[in-house]
Amino acid sequence: MILPRPTLPLLFLTVLTAGAVDFKKDIEPILEKNCYECHSEKNKKRKGGFVFDELETFKLDIADNDVAQIRPGKPAESHFLEVIVNPDHDRHMPPDDQLSSGDIKKLTEWITEGASFEKNDGTKPMVAAAPKKDLPPIMSWTNLEGKTIRAGFVRLDGENVVLRMPANGAEVPYPLAKLSPESVKQAQESGAP
Fold first, then answer.
1. What is the homologous superfamily of the domain 138-190 according to CATH?
2. Residue 131 predicted with pLDDT over 90
3. pTM of the shown model
């Protein structure tokens, strides 16, 4: 079983200013390295109808509606992020690989900050209008008995990882000592600043 790489706990900020993720500097290199082979105008490949190197086309997949692949300010509702984070997804991307936790953090922050292609120079705030009920991306957690738990990372709390259950949104502390070494590492990386 392939375990997902950790993501950031999704802390939805109302206003983000300087230090925001820059598409050109932070996101485009991730897409070029991991996605352009199959989703690129330059390579004349539009698998699934998606293109990430032609921004006018890519923008069509970014909107705040139920059919958009990326919902600005709402990473937990962005199908784009779900297929990257969840290795059990039937259309997991990249197909035979997993992005690093750092790359997933940047993508999550970029979507949280509004999924803009424009550089935020800090002079104007970028608003992320995510509702408080958003759930973090669902991840797979394996315990020492080999059972898989599907839940979102919330935070580390002493000797526990606090997970958010997708069915009801409840936060449940789970002892790190009862998780597999891979899941412990995932929790520690997810909680890293």
1. SLA1 homology domain 1 (2.30.30.700)
2. no
3. 0.56
